[in-house]
Structures are given as C-alpha cells and as structure tokens.
Design brief:
This protein is an all-alpha fold. It folds into 2 domains: 80 residues; 49 residues, no CATH class. The chain contains 6 helices and no strands.
Amino acid sequence: MIQSHPGEFSAILVALFWTITALAFESASNKVGSLPVNIIRLILGFLFLSLLNLIIRGRFFPTDASAHNWIWLSFSLMAVKYTSSGIASTIMAIVPILIIPPSIFLFHHKITIREIVGTVLSVGGVALFFL
C-alpha cells in the first residue's frame, strides 16, 4: 500500500510529525522555558544540518548564507511560546500559500493546475483548523 501511494503516506507522516513537534516544543517550553528548549533544539539542529550540509555540499557551515537569511531565522526562536502550537502550526501550514504571489511576481513562475489544487487543499485544511 505504501508503494502505491507514496505521496499520501508522506503527507500523513508530515502532518503527524508536525503535530508531535509542535506539541512537544510547546510542552517543553512551558515546563523549562523557551530559552533552554531552543538552545538544545538549535545545538542538535546545527549538528545534524551541518553534517548533512557537509555530506551534500562539502561545507560544514553555511558560509554562503546572507545576513538577511540569519535575521529571518532568528525571528522564529520564541514563536511557539508566544503564539501556541496551533498558531505556529497554522503559520507553517500556510507558508506554501504565502509563497505563491512572490513566486509569480518576482520569479515569473507559472502556476499549474496541480499547484492550484494543492493550494486549495492547503487552504481547506487550514480553514478546518479554525472551524
């Protein structure tokens, strides 16, 4: 069954892992505070992503990232504590929708029917959260 529907299976796993991650970070932030949780998360994330970066790109540290990238990354550090896991997950879920206008106007991307259907499904899923 997994072999015949890899996209659907992947979507279910992503939704499951997003939910577990959001709830775990909210719970941990409420118990020990956002600073220790984010320090541990950032250290582990740094190590895992650096190793992956080393394997894939031959660089341990992303020296080609701009200051602009680092500034936007830093804004997310305490988002879950100040919003909630539900709001943070909603924001993560609508990111693909928010990317459409810049991709059309800045990069002249042609949106396909398949992408429109995916966007409508994403909007519908986010709307269900608020019902």
